[in-house]
Amino acid sequence: MPLATIIGILAGSGGMIGFIPQVVHVIRTGSVGDLSLGMVWIQSVSMSLWVWYGMLVDNGVIIGFNAAKVALLTVLLGYFARDYWFRKPLKISDALSHPSKPTPYDLDDLTI
3-class DSSP state for residue 109? Predict the structure, then answer.
């Protein structure tokens, strides 16, 4: 295996493995409140362009790792979309009138 391929695999692995804890955290907490939507969009576009570039130069290492990162970023974008379209702010009066009813909202989502 050429040295350039080995370096590409190591670099791609590091980038991929370094991003997995963030996605796992979002899935566990169900919150993307600590993330910037702009960063996720820019990363998604950038990684998609890297996949396209990998196809143009016919490099499976570039395609594989960047496609996997696009998949992880798609998970994050899905959580952003869910928060934007499906989560409505919870009013304090609703929370107080149903104190035993569990809600998927954090206290930061409460509005007066």
Answer: helix
Encoding tokens for residue 28?
A: 């566990």
What are the tens digits of pLDDT across the range 40-88? 899 999 999 999 999 999 999 999 999 999 999 999 998 888 887 776 5
pTM: 0.69
Helices (H), 30-102: 37-56, 60-85, 92-97
Give me the amino acid identity at 25.
Answer: H
- Cα angle value 39/42/43 (rounded, 5°): 85
Residue 23 domain boundaries:
3-111
Distance CA 16, CA 18 (A): 5
* Structure token digits, residue 101: 């009813």
**CATH code at 60?**
1.20.1280.290
Beta bridge partners of 110: 90
Most confident listed range (1-10, 67-76, 91-100)? 67-76
**DSSP secondary structure letter of residue 36:** -
Number of domains in the chain: 1
